[in-house]
Amino acid sequence: MFVMELTYTAPVEAVDERMAAHIAWLDGYYASKTFLASGRKVPREGGVILAAGISRAEAERIAAEDPFTVAGVCTYRITEFIATKTSAALDPVRETLPS
User: Is the dihedral of CA 78, 94, 90, 31 positive or negative?
Assistant: First the structure.
């Protein structure tokens, strides 16, 4: 599983100009069940996406195609973790430690 952390590198006004395209991009990955949750950081300096069922290379590719990244208004920090404990709602993405 991955925590994909966005940090804005441009004024929020520049980010907002690309928000519709970013939301459409998010919707595609929700439809494919890759994204589990997303939202803005508080204070509004970026956002966070929780993604599952992909490799690190895929996470990096997905981040690179975000309209925010393409427009140069954000950077990504991608952190992989093994979700060994989850709520019941996330049972389908629960992982086990490698032997």
Answer: positive
Nearest-angstrom CA–CA distance, 71 and 44:
18
Using the 8-state DSSP alphabet, how is residue 93 labeled?
G
Query: What tens digit of pLDDT does each residue of 18-64 get?
Result: 999 999 999 999 999 999 999 999 999 999 999 999 999 999 999 99
- Amino acid sitting at position 91: D
Task: Take residue 46 and report the two structure tokens written for it.
Answer: 């970026």
36 in Cβ contact with 92 (< 8 Å): no
Residue 59 CB neighbours (<10 A):
22
Q: CA 86 to CA 13: how far, in whole Å? A: 36
CA neighbours closer than 13 Å in the CB half-sphere of residue 60: 3
CA distances in angstroms from 86 to 1, 12, 89, 94, 95, listed in the order given: 12, 33, 8, 6, 9
Its pTM stands at 0.94
